Amino acid sequence: MIKYLHSVWAGFVLIVLAFTAIQHSGGLLKGRAYNLRADLRMALFAVVVYGIQIVLGLLNWFTSDYFKGIRDGRFGSYMKDAHARLIVLEHPVMGILGFLLMLYGFRRSYFHVDPRRKFLAVIWSYTLALLLILLRIPWADWL
Q1: Which DSSP string corresponds to the chain?
Q2: Up-side HSE of residue 32: CA atoms within 13 Å toward CB?
Q3: How far apart are CA 125 and CA 110, in angstroms?
Q4: Are 46 and 141 in contact (CB under 8 A)?
Q5: In whole angstroms, what is the distance from residue 97 CA to residue 55 CA?
Q6: Rounded CA separation 112/122 (Å)
Q7: What are phi and psi of 124, to 5 degrees?
Q8: pLDDT per residue over 83-104, tens digit each?
Q9: Quick check: pTM over 0.85?
C-alpha cells in the first residue's frame, strides 16, 4: 500500500514542482513584486507535498525486501546490480538531496528582500530538485 501511495504521490509532486518553478519564472519575467499570499504559499505547498513524498518513500524503503537484505548483509551484492543500486541507494539519496535543496531555496526566498532574488532562489533550487528527482526515478518500475 505504501509503495502504491509513494508511486501515485510522485506524479503529483512532479506536477507541483514544475508548476511552482513555472509560476515563479513568470513572476520574474513580468517583473512583478513577490506576492506572499500566492508565491510564497505555492513554494511552501511544494515543500509540504514533497515532504510527504519523502516520508512515504522512507516508510517504503524501511519496509522493503531490500532493507531486509541490507540487514542480512547483502549490501555489497546490491551495489553490483545497477537496478538494485538505484532502488537501495541512488533514488533515496537523490530524493533527500532534492528535498534539502528545496528547503534551502525556500528559506532563501523567505528571507531575501529583493523580489527578483526571491524568485531566482525558488526557480533555481526547485528546478534543480526536479532534475535530481527525474534523473533517479526508477522509470522501469514506475511506468
Answers
A1: -HHHHHHHHHHHHHHHHHHHHHHHHHHHHHTPPP-IIIIIHHHHHHHHHHHHHHHHHHHHHHTSHHHHHHHTT-HHHHHHSHHHHIIIIIHHHHHHHHHHHHHHHHHHHHH-SSHHHHHHHHHHHHHHHHHHHHHTS-HHHH-
A2: 11
A3: 13
A4: no
A5: 14
A6: 11
A7: -65, -50
A8: 888 988 899 999 999 999 999 9
A9: yes
